[in-house]
Amino acid sequence: MTVGELPIGRRVAQWRVQRRMSQQVFADRLGKSKSWVDKVERGVRALDRLSVIEEIAEVLRIDPVVLLGRDTPPAAATTSGLVDGVDGVRAALARHDVFRTGVEAPPLPPVDEVARLVGHGWLAYQHAHYPQLVRMLPDLLDTARRCHTPRAERSAELLVQAYRLTSSVLVKLGDAGLAWLAADRAMAVAAEDPVVAATAAVPLGQALRALGRGRLAMTAALAAANRIAPAVPREVPPGESVVCGALLLQAALAAVDCGDDRSVAELLDRAADLADRVGDGHDHHQTSFGPTVIELARVLTAAELGDTADALRRHASVTRRDSWRRLPAEYRAAHLIDTARAYLRLGDLPGAGRLLVEADRTAPAEVRCRPVARTVLAEVYRSGPEAAGVARLAAAVGLTR
């Protein structure tokens, strides 16, 4: 096996040794735990976030391409360039009406019209229509900002939702830095309303995790959750319980990134208590939060912490539920991609390929537009023998050119 064919974890270990760093020293410089480093080097934890690979490469003082390997298809590491229109979103986030002079301001849009546009945006997101949503976002952001005045009821909440949508789709497309900016804008707009601010903290946690800042993500999510945590849970409206639970879920996922196994279990259990009170089938604050989502999180965290067998057992169980089929297509396809990574770690290429093909049938853009999904697909495709449908899917996304 040549150096370029080595698994990425092995390459990390080789360069760490070459730089004469112990696992503990390396972990300290990354802000991770020694356990996290050990799992990465043994291949128990996948390295499929470009931001984390870049951070590791910086500590090792090498080019990220060295870690990715010379045989890695370039498309596997592509970011938001996969979808046209991200530059338009970037420009919309950079615009500030306060600096416009000599231009007559257009009339304020009716709040109901803004609410309709925001609702249409969330529908596009939940169906993983990312190219369509990216094209919508510049006008949506401009319209929601113009609507945001002290006299317009709900205008702050609608602007926060527009920023949340922007941050969420940018995380999907691999532009975590721009996603962080959008989430930060949402937090600034919602500062005076604890519940609306808490909804904004959900994409903030996602963006920070995508940037490889697990500790910051965990801190931000817990601070927002504790701010609205119910003193008497059964007396709190379901909407607030849902947001608190979604934040605890984000904190648990961030704890995984930090290698903090104990906190993962504690946070998931706290979130599960809230989910059981709310139940499935609701979509308060566009979170899809409920017992089924908690079980999907247990699949992901078990896989990330190295208990792949438990992850796959849980996956098989939860996907048989009726509530699984009622989740948004985006959520189901994202879970299938995460589980494909678990199959890949076990060396079960047909299993990983089968889930990727199923994810593509469920929500094609989730596979074809997300760098993380394309990385998994590239690994399955090049490792062979090919699972049914994988070659066709790889060709469709341009990995065979």
UniProtKB/TrEMBL annotation:
PROSITE patterns for this protein: HTH_CROC1
CDD domains, per database record: HTH_XRE
Pfam families assigned to the protein according to its UniProt record, in alphabetical order: HTH_31
TM stretches of this protein: none
GO molecular function, one term: DNA binding
InterPro entries for this protein: Cro/C1-type_HTH (IPR001387), Lambda_DNA-bd_dom_sf (IPR010982)
Protein name from the UniProt record: Helix-turn-helix protein
